[in-house]
Design brief:
6 strands, 5 helices, 228 residues, 4-stranded antiparallel beta sheet, disordered C terminus, alpha+beta
């Protein structure tokens, strides 16, 4: 390689340095934006559930709310008020032949009502079930982790899928809680001794005490009245 060629390449490298730095900065900013979108999407769906299998017989949103409320009351014994629901609607296009039952997205005002329903979702009857409202990419990730989840459980490990992450702990968690160690009782020598008055010398009679006090008072100096 000639000297002139080396000089040209060095000049090109020098010009590419700021471009390379700018590309790295853009990649870093892109990762930050992706992370923000990830958490915004997660927070947006935190109070949502999707209900599958409920017969599509409603003619308005109001009627749909009544159907959902009745289902939760009958199967789960959970009372849902109108004020508890923020948004509710069917997902997907209407099936004119009424063969497919479109899922229902329910967005609650607060998370505790949604959590109460999800804890009792296994009590739903008639092939109706509820699930979390996950984004599409999270659903795909959970499907990929399903095989690993089953594999870990076959090994006897405790494994669950938390959102889009697989959590594995060796062995099954014990049901017996560790008892709190009771504090050791102090030895006899460490216990404070109460002052006891057991001897006769230490015992005082209340009447004797009063008699002694009366004797200690000064006597009257006036002469007594002579007897008649």
């Amino acid at each position: 390689m000639s000297k002139q060629t080396k000089e040209i390449l060095a000049q090109l490298d020098e010009k590419l340095v700021p471009l390379t730095r700018e590309i790295d900065e853009l990649r870093f900013e892109n990762e930050i934006l992706k992370e923000k979108i990830y958490y915004l999407e997660k927070h947006k769906r935190a109070n949502n559930i999707i209900l599958y299998g409920l017969h599509e017989s409603e003619d308005s949103i109001k009627t749909l709310i009544q159907l959902v409320k009745k289902k939760f009351k009958d199967d789960l014994n959970i009372i849902v008020e109108d004020r508890d629901i923020n948004t509710i609607y069917r997902l997907g296009k209407i099936d004119k032949q009424k063969e497919k039952r479109r899922p229902i997205l329910i967005s609650f005002v607060n998370n505790w009502k949604k959590s109460d329903i999800m804890k009792n979702k296994n009590k739903l009857n008639n092939n109706i079930y509820a699930s979390e409202d996950y984004p599409k990419d999270v659903l795909n990730k959970r499907r990929e982790l399903q095989s690993k989840l089953e594999e870990e459980r076959k090994k006897g490990n405790y494994a669950i899928i938390n959102y889009d992450r697989l959590i594995v702990k060796e062995g099954k968690p014990g049901n017996v809680k560790r008892k709190r160690d009771s504090p050791a009782s102090p030895s006899i020598s460490e216990q404070p001794c109460k002052q006891q008055f057991t001897t006769k010398a230490n015992r005082r009679n209340a009447f004797d005490l009063m008699r002694n006090r009366s004797n200690s008072f000064p006597t009257d100096n006036h002469p007594s009245k002579p007897e008649a």
